[in-house]
Specification:
- The protein is an alpha/beta fold.
- About 45% of the residues lie in helices and about 30% in strands.
């Protein structure tokens, strides 16, 4: 009987510790744009990203997406990795936004893992670009990102 009380107390302490690291009013957005076939696809990809963001169930009292995305557009930092890879990033107290354009498979995988590791209570991952119809893999210039990759990231996390 005493051992079950000790175990119960440890479980309660662990859950309190886990929720302390979790920020209920923080949002994280990761957009990964894979390979595109033509310049005309840019508009279609933009619409898909917008549709994904608009479908995000966000409490507008704590995160005004229009305001924070405008802030992202005007204050983001850009880094260029090589072979056309770009990373746009901006972090505020409320919204952490990152856009990867033509990333490598390794970078996409590590940033998706990092998204799940963040303290944010609300997370959105948008994958867009050319994909393989049968498997759903998003194609990059080097490698691809599959539903299996995402499953692995979630189970590892």
């Amino acid at each position: 009987m005493a051992s079950s009380r000790v175990l119960e107390r440890e479980v309660q302490q662990e859950s309190k510790t886990a929720t302390r690291d979790f920020c209920p009013h923080k949002y994280s957005l990761l957009v990964i744009i894979g390979r595109t076939a033509r310049h005309r696809q840019t508009e279609h990809i933009r619409k898909e990203i917008e549709r994904g963001i608009r479908s995000w169930d966000v409490d507008l009292k704590s995160c005004n997406l229009n305001l924070f995305l405008q802030e992202f557009l005007s204050h983001h930092t850009a880094s260029f990795k090589g072979a056309g890879q770009k990373c746009l990033r901006h972090c505020s107290k409320v919204l952490d936004t990152q856009v990867l354009i033509s990333p490598s498979q390794e970078l996409a995988y590590s940033e998706a893992f990092a998204l799940l590791s963040r303290e944010s209570a609300h997370k959105l991952l948008i994958l867009t670009g050319l994909s393989v119809e049968e498997s759903g893999e998003v194609l990059f210039h080097r490698g691809q990102f599959s539903p299996e990759h995402l499953r692995r990231i979630i189970t590892e996390r």
